[in-house]
Known about the structure:
The chain folds into 4 domains: 2-49 and 223-277, no CATH class; 57-219, Jelly Rolls (Sandwich), CATH 2.60.120; 289-334, Roll (SH3 type barrels), CATH 2.30.30; 349-397. The chain has 2 helices and 36 strands. It has helices at 338-345, 419-425, and strands spanning 2-3, 11-16, 20-25, 29-34, 38-42, 50-52, 69-71, 74-77, 82-87, 93-101, 107-114, 127-132, 135-141, 146-153, 160-168, 173-178, 183-188, 200-207, 210-219, 233-237, 242-251, 256-261, 264-269, 273-277, 289-293, 298-306, 310-314, 322-325, 329-334, 351-355, 358-365, 373-380, 387-390, 395-398, 442-445, 451-454. The longest helix has 8 residues, at 338-345. The model has no long low-confidence stretch (mean pLDDT 85).
Amino acid sequence: MELASGDMFTGRLLQWNDEHLEIDSVHFGVVHVKAESVRRIYRLTENPLLVYSGLTGVAGWNVHDTEWREDGPFLETSQDDAKISGDFQIPDKAMIEFELSWPQKPNFALVLGADPDLKEDKRQDGWRLEMWDQLLGVLREHKDIADVDRVAMILPSVKRVHLIAYLDQLEGSIQIFTADGSPAGKISVPPVEGTKPGRGIRIVNRHGTIRLERLRIARWNGQLPTSIPKGEIAYHLADGTTQLGIPQGFDADTREYMFKVGDDVKRSSEADVVMSERGPPEAVEARSMATMLQDGTRLSGQLERVEAASLVVQCPDISEALTIPQIGVRALVMSPTAAEKAAEEGSGRPGRLTIDGQNLAGWLIDGKKTDEAACFVWQPKTSRTSSAIKSRAAGEIVYREARKAVPVEQAQVRERPGANFLDIFLQKANTPPAERATTVDHNIHLRSGDIIPCNVLSI
């Protein structure tokens, strides 16, 4: 089950009425989910539409002698130019849902409909989602024709992207939507005569760290999510057809979905419905935290308390408070509130304190020297309290990393794939110009070892 907030969990449907769905969940027992919060329900077993249900580590992938790590079911690498690919038998018409995350500025290429037998990444292979500076774009290139579109601006504050691609390799088109159903980009390039549809997926990490956290592939019947009328649900049946209707509930005795079409109430067996989904949801209020479990379960809301062996989370979409065993938790993602963000924006100059092997992002605040502490008081980012630094403690505060010098003979211009198409088809991103360094003619070297760049006016 997938909720409008992006949360996901598995279970068995027990009841469905106008107000809530009763689910016997795998991790939390019987819970009641608000009906309006449900975005999509799809069957995990005996589902003819589902081609690939979710990540299971490196199983089914070829890492091409590069370093990829498993973190539960997820895949991650920090190696430059690391490649990974897999043959997933992508259908001619496919829906491909994926989620990628990164700790710092990303630089990657995700290729859908790739040739799984290729050992090297080729420009004219597949439908490519690539990073160009701060812009994520989608590109398809043949020898004599290409098309490109922007998908999203990836600002420094953005640490993940969750998208759904609707790929039609026979017609030669791809349409990208955000997880909430908003259009993000589309391109169209007619297939070249004699070429076969690609069945694989490839990821190339050009630089930094990239992490694949979600991948789901299903056969697509050509219906886009925006075409589902508000208040109705699309019931995708095992025979490939889709029935639109207003939900009327679920009969637990006969295991049948009930929905209204016109004035008639129809029924479809649970075995015949492989997926049911609503159209794009309205904006969902930001949550203060999200809990990720090892099996891909995701729940967001308010962290109520932490117990010896479990977390207690209150999800706005679920009536019951959820007790989550800590042993199954992979990550807790905290999101600062608007007030906390505003407080940080009005704080001091951000930097990084390195002391006793610890690295703490934050800023200096007003402080007074005492017998035990220096006048330096450090306010860590996302912390509610600050701390004075001991008088005899040794450390440093870095406000800007020094650029590493590169010998002229080793300096290389890194290829910027797709840049020519970006300049032709897209307007340049509104990125601020790089700050120019002040030109100085001399350095003063003091006996203490300090160095002061300067321009000598007189001696």
